[in-house]
Sequence to fold (229 residues):
Amino acid sequence: MLQKSLLSVAAGVGAVAFPHRADLVGAVGETTGWYALRRMRDRMRRDPTGRDILRRRPRITDDFLERCHALPEGTFGGAYAKFMGRRKFNPNDRPPVRFVDDEELAYVATRSREVHDLWHVLFQCPTTVQGELALKALEFAQTGLPMAALGAAFAPILLETSKREFLFNEMYPWARRAGARAADLMCLDYENEIGTDLAELRHKWRITPAPKQPKRPRANTDEDKDEST
Fold:
């Protein structure tokens, strides 16, 4: 228990300082999120699709991405393949869950980690620091995971003033509304919807896309170049 507590503190500091470090973010989520994971698992058990997911335990892997590459761009899977390809992301690169002892809860943690990039696509949320923090706020509204709240609360200090203001004035209010309005994101059968038209799927799952910050007339930074799809 002491080891996990120390790990939580160390990883928490690192995750706030480096919000793109999936290994640090994941470690904090695993060591601080037991109660939230249990609530998520219980919600999934009460939902027919959630129960089926817990029974089958599907995985979002490189094989899943390969299937999506064969789909048209306007589909959910096609948009996901484009999103991953532009960033050179691979699903198998995500760090495994290591600090959750219960097998079923470990799968819930794995599932929430693996569908993260699908949420980026559905909500048109960029992979900039702003976008990641806004999606963390939405994730907290949906799952109650402490790490999501921790990142959303403290990491904005890394942003320049204009980006921080847009985050607090536009992105965070959107995240709260969108998280409350959307279907339970842990109880969705993403794998069987990859051939569905993306706009149709957003309507079906009550998805509200993220607001876009107006571009300023200056040279782009690496962060500004990011797009959601």
